[in-house]
Amino acid sequence: MNFTIHPVQTAAELAAAIRIRHEVFVIGQNIPASENEDGNDPDCFHVLAKFNGKNVATGRLFFVDETTGTLSRIAVLESNRGLGIGKAMVKALEVIAVEQGLQYLSLTPHDYLYDFYVDLGYQLVAEKGVHFVEDHRLITMRKRISF
Predict the structure, then answer these.
(1) Residue 25 per-residue DSSP state
(2) Distance CA 141, CA 123 (A)
(3) Where are the alpha helices (DSSP H) in the chain?
(4) Which pTM value belongs to this model?
(5) Residues spanned by the domain of 134
(6) How confident is the model at residue 138 (pLDDT cuts 50, 70, 90)?
(7) Using an 8 Å Cβ cutoff, are 38 and 51 in contact?
């Protein structure tokens, strides 16, 4: 596959990431813009994927504390799904998390993405249950990334 994933380093790249999220979540999934724009972007480490020279996917890592991070806003444009970009993005964020000394990562994906994240080593956090954003069922998952 002809895609690359790199850290967001400029305001223009962050704006591109936010546009991708808006297209995937707000337009594509009818998630309220207020849920997408949570104010945490300045405190996160962002990555951007390019495919054939175009920005097509993004994701971010939020540092909860010294040992735990949260992956969120992982978004791949619909026309670029199924190419392995999403998995590569999660793995790139995991590498960054390990480099930063984190031991655990959590995320809250749509429930239909359960198998996708299990294949990447994440486990369901049953006590968190299912919660909803609009009519989207979200689950909480967690992975130990460092020992």
Answers:
(1) I
(2) 5
(3) 11-21, 28-29, 33-36, 85-99, 114-119
(4) 0.90
(5) 3-144
(6) confident
(7) no
pLDDT tens readout for residues 82-134: 999 999 999 999 999 999 999 999 999 989 999 999 999 999 997 666 665 56
The distance from CA 48 to its chain's CA centroid, rounded to whole angstroms, is 10
Q: Report the phi/psi class of residue 125: left, alpha or beta, with left for phi > 0 and alpha for psi in -120 to 50.
A: beta
DSSP conformation class of 120: T
pLDDT at 30: 84
Residue with tokens 């995937």: 24
Rounded to an integer, the average pLDDT of 20-38 is 86
- For 80-116, the DSSP string reads GTTSSHHHHHHHHHHHHHHHTT--EEEE--BGGGHHH
Work out how many domains the chain is built from and give that number.
1
Instruction: Give the CATH number of the domain where residue 32 resides.
Output: 3.40.630.30
